[in-house]
Amino acid sequence: MKKLSILFAAFLFTIAGCTSPEQSSVTVLDTDQLIEDLKVLASDEFEGRRTGTEGNRKAREFLVQRFEEEGATPFQGSFTHEFEFSGSDGETMTGVNVVGEIAGKTDSVIVITAHYDHLGIRDSLIYNGADDDASGTAALLAYIDYFSREQPEHTLVFAAFDAEEMGLRGAREFVEDSVFLDKVVMNINLDMISNNDKNELYASGTYHHPELKPVLEGIETGEISLLFGHDRPDQGYDDWTNASDHAAFHAKGKRFIYFGVEDHEHYHQHTDEFETIPQTFYKNSAEVILNAILAFDAM
Length: 299
Hints:
It is a single chain. The protein is of the alpha/beta class and about 300 residues long. The protein is about 35% helix and about 20% strand. It has helices at about 1-20, 20-25, 30-40, 55-70, 130-150, 170-175, 215, 245-250, 280-295, and strands at about 75, 80-85, 90-100, 110-115, 120, 125, 155-160, 185-190, 200-205, 225-230, 255-260. The longest helix has 20 residues, at about 130-150. It is globular and about 45 Å long. Mean pLDDT is about 90; it is low at about 1-25.
């Protein structure tokens, strides 16, 4: 009996080892669907997704459908958040954010963001913005799918912002209109996460929030080199603190981490197409960011 008990205990230990913290930190996304969503968002059908255009409207409708399909619930009663702002020529423009949420075990909120707009059509060329920022937007859909199956500790708000390319207007209007800001503990922003030939992904913001760096240093990164920086005031143009939608949260004193790659040859060019995205890097990048979300959710 003693020998059998020892064998049974060893068996239980082996099972427990299969779900050790080290192994459970390696997460699995539906990366096939991730790639498919990127391909759709970066297609000519949406004509570069410029704010106020028919292509932008089609992209928004696609996102609302996909938010619902993947299991998000409408944020404060609606998947859309409409706002008005003055365009560069002074005309009044309308933008529409797409926002959903996954209820957590608490009402403390982490806001995960990307922007779905891009530059539209210029000189008869479609600027599809595959990396900038169809990549971050498609990743939002993958994370909604994941957390619809694995309830998070925090309530997760997923926001696909409009008019980022026109001065971060969607993010700024969302933050100004939100009545839940006191419950927001941090913003995780994804902008250009799919195109790098060195397997390098930056997590920017630890200069402002050094307490977040050890969390990121503890996650599984696989083949990705997770780097820090681009967040110091003395870096000038290379300081990304106000370069994307996380700036709206930073301005309100909220913690943020901005995931992105450095500028590349396709940045703001018509060649930023689905076909120029290194898919293995993109999948790995999205999985690293999920590991980071899980680590922050556990804080």
